[in-house]
Specification:
The structure is a homodimer. Chain A contains 8 helices and 2 strands. Chain A is mostly helical. In chain A, a hairpin with a 6-residue loop joins strand 1 and strand 2. The longest helix of chain A has about 30 residues. Chain A starts with 8 loop residues before the first helix and ends in an 18-residue tail after the last helix. At the A-B interface, helix 1, helix 4, helix 5, helix 6 and helix 7 of A face helix 1, helix 4, helix 5, helix 6 and helix 7 of B. Chain A binds a DNA duplex through helix 2 and helix 3.
Chain lengths: ~190, ~190
Amino acid sequence: VPVARTSQTETAVLGALSIEPMSGYALRAAIVEALGHFWHESFGQIYPALARAEAAGHVRRRAGGRTSGSVFELTEPGRSRLRDLLAEPVEAAPARNGLLLRLFFGDVLGPGACRELLADAEQRAGEALETYAAIRRELADEDDPGRPYRLLTVSYGEAMARTLRQWAQDAAAALPEDADPTTGWPPPTAQP
Amino acid sequence: VPVARTSQTETAVLGALSIEPMSGYALRAAIVEALGHFWHESFGQIYPALARAEAAGHVRRRAGGRTSGSVFELTEPGRSRLRDLLAEPVEAAPARNGLLLRLFFGDVLGPGACRELLADAEQRAGEALETYAAIRRELADEDDPGRPYRLLTVSYGEAMARTLRQWAQDAAAALPEDADPTTGWPPPTAQP
DNA sequence: TATGTCATGTAACTGGTTACATGATTGC
DNA sequence: GCAATCATGTAACCAGTTACATGACATA
């Protein structure tokens, strides 16, 4: 069954609802919370996607008990649709790495500023590793059939962050010495 | 000097012209060729960016010798502008990893299809490593002050591709056995 | 003289973000 | 009663892609 050209927002929305029925507002929170380290959706996308999914019969709206809003739950056709979407080939997003763009033209920028960029990247990688550790702790308590799959996404993040950190260290070491005083780096040897 | 909110297309365009003056058409080819493994621009972006840069005095247009079009070269203000742009903090692009999105909901998709996704990723990582090796060979011949910086971007790609390949292997091994006959995976033991 | 490549641009569309408008419910 | 949060949406905008229109030059 070919799936008509679609944004992956639908996948994220139906996927999140496959775990648990919830409101659009909670959906956003869940996407930030659970998928945040590798996926992102904005409000402006979620509600229209939800409306389309409702029109297509993929989700059903139930009046929420004590709260004002409504709760959306995945229907059987919706689950089937989700399976189709997940089976779609992964389309590679066009690469746009701002760090590498700067480093590529590093000789215009100077070694000192490049080292700063690399130090930044290294630090962010370290912070990412901490958040992954926290996610791992949370996942340890849960016991659902999806857990092994969720863990895969965490180990991906960890592996990439560790590699990034190591590369940033090595790269900074491989950079030429900075002879330019305007960037404020200390000279390699002491002055009298 | 704060740089007004800008797209990074300008950085790529001015950066490429800092290496060598060329036409808009050649610029596109150079961006694909040299930055292709971590950056991407389309025609629809390049010409407007070039026109804006010309209006701002960052590039100068010279009549091309034997060809019909013109050749753009970076001016001194343009080089200064490029330095400012490169010094801008790297803004993290909102994460959108289609592979992880699929794996996260892997229990809906089934282990067999997940293994296929991982095998795909592993193969693409292997192919990427080959193209990096080719880039390395090309860079070996050149001798310009930017070479150490360009090599950094290659080693980044190599490190990430190697990590991706290894993770994909480990992940496939960690997946539960596939008991679902509809996905067409062979059973772990022989049948009588 | 036909074909391919170099070359320059524009217009329409798409996907996505941001900011705003609006109101219900809950807890203090 | 007031503030915070839950909740649902829309409108305007922006970045970026795709497809198209156009033509010069080289060469077979």
